[in-house]
Write a structure and sequence with these properties.
The chain is of the alpha/beta class. The protein is built from 20 helices and 13 strands. The chain has three domains: 118 residues, no CATH class; 287 residues, TIM Barrel (Alpha-Beta Barrel); 44 residues, no CATH class.
Length: 468
């Protein structure tokens, strides 16, 4: 694989490596199954990236071997399927993308250095081995100050509080029903002993020297004491190869943000490779963003973004996670224009402002696929505008990247496949769209039509299907 400069010919190195993986991984192999893990410790769940369904971690196994947090029996079976050049069904997201002729996340992820460096060893493995991951994401608890429309009580204590008060949402299959989050599905509160968190901290001293990327998610990590425990550990034992990453809504109380940004400044002045701040934001229209991510203070978030980019010293950047859902479409261009402005102001010698556009697939009534065709045309216009504002050799930091445009076009291709689901299915999901958001307005004192006036025709169609 190429290990040269930032670009290869007229392509970015990132795109070149992804295309190399497309040619060499074969039909089913994804290096993330070996080298990446997402740990959801409040519920004892695991996956290698956010696309496959979460699966349970054996609480007894981690007492004997804390590395079983990653190397579960289920995951080893999936690795064997991949090594036999087959497609695991749980990875259908990538197969759907590839079947449209586009690069999928398995190509992008496998092409990144933290995974690609073990390509030969993985290809020649049996699938039974224990592997030390180099990219780890961890959710220590579900405490969160927001209740985003597409989230759930598993990942938000505010959502849990709401459903305990009001019950399930009245969609065709009751959504986020309280009885679903009992027993094994109940998130373990921070105040209670959690065997998975205990296993993580037992594993941590062995894991830490092998890490290339360590990312804390939530819940809201800025509200979690484990976040600062990790920070203290890294400050005491700097790792010069570590990319330390945190995902936040950046809308916490000012006193807590002051504590957090103080830590980040110290970390970026010590010996780590890089600090990446992920900020979750789905659209650039403030009121619409606050509607999607209920509880968000848009102005506070934007102020904290600018503070971070202005105050934090070298070896850091910021990435917006734009979860592509059907409410993102009206304000997407405004968000991307803000990102270009932030790049112009804050990217001087290297790229400090990034974004990604992952697809939302559940709950399905909030996916792009249930929108009428003019919404796809709107996204095509945005992709064309991005093409007209690509970075150049003379201006490498202030335009869009080739793979950023490709990812949006990939999303549009997936969106257009919605027509293959059949009219009956789409009508059912549109009915649930209306049922969910009309109840959302009742519970949270919001108003869909006042917030999304450009979606009035779609809203009326959804209401028609719900009231038939």
């Amino acid at each position: 694989m190429n290990k040269g400069d930032e670009s290869v010919g007229n392509k970015s190195k990132f795109m070149f490596n992804a295309e190399w993986m497309k040619e060499n991984l074969g039909e089913g192999l994804c290096l993330a199954k070996w080298k990446q893990v997402s740990l959801h410790l409040p519920t004892g769940l695991n996956n290698s990236c956010y696309h496959p369904p979460l699966h349970h971690i054996d609480a007894e196994a981690v007492k004997k071997n804390p590395a079983s947090l990653h190397n579960t029996d289920h995951k080893k079976e999936q690795r064997k399927v991949m090594l036999s050049r087959q497609r695991p069904s749980e990875c259908q997201y990538c197969w759907n993308i590839e079947d449209t002729g586009n690069l999928s996340d398995r190509h992008y992820r496998s092409g990144e250095p933290w995974a690609a460096s073990d390509y030969d060893a993985i290809v020649n493995s049996t699938g039974d081995e224990d592997w030390m991951p180099s990219y780890v994401e961890v959710n220590f608890n579900h405490a969160c100050n927001l209740q985003c429309s597409y989230c759930s009580p598993q990942f938000s204590s505010t959502w849990m509080k709401e459903i305990k008060k009001y019950g399930a949402y009245p969609t065709s299959t009751p959504h986020n029903a309280p009885e679903h989050f009992t027993g094994r599905r109940r998130p373990i509160p921070q105040r209670e002993n959690n065997p998975y968190v205990d296993a993580f901290w037992e594993w941590w001293p062995e894991l830490y020297p092998h890490l290339k990327h360590f990312r804390m998610t939530g819940g809201e990590p800025l509200m979690d004491n484990n976040t600062y425990r990790v920070f203290d550990y890294v400050l005491a034992l700097p790792n010069p190869e570590l990319h330390l990453n945190v995902t936040s809504n950046f809308s916490v109380e000012p006193k807590l943000f002051e504590k957090y940004i103080g830590y980040v400044k110290r970390l970026c002045n010590t010996q780590i490779e890089h600090f990446m701040q992920y900020v979750s934001l789905d659209t650039g229209e403030p009121k619409q963003a606050e509607y999607i991510r209920n509880g968000l203070d848009y102005n506070r978030m934007a102020h904290n973004v600018v503070r971070y980019l202005s105050e934090v010293p070298e070896r850091n950047s910021l990435t917006f996670i734009i979860t592509m859902n059907n409410l993102s479409v009206p304000g997407l261009k405004r968000l991307l224009a803000w990102i270009l402005e932030l790049r112009r102001v804050h990217s001087k010698t290297y790229q400090r402002v990034w974004f990604d556009t992952p697809l939302l697939r559940q709950p399905y009534w909030q996916s792009l696929q249930i929108l009428p065709w003019p919404y796809a045309e709107k996204l095509e216009d945005i992709a064309d505008w991005m093409e007209q504002n690509l970075q150049t050799e003379d201006n490498p930091l202030h335009g869009f990247k080739d793979y950023e445009v490709q990812r949006l076009r990939r999303d549009i291709a997936w969106m257009r496949k919605g027509k293959e689901l059949g009219e009956d299915y789409l009508q059912k999901q549109r009915a649930d769209f209306y049922r969910f958001f009309s109840e959302h307005d009742r519970r949270r004192e919001t108003n869909f039509l006042e917030t999304f006036p450009e979606m009035e025709e779609f809203w009326k169609e959804c209401r028609y299907h719900a009231q038939r």
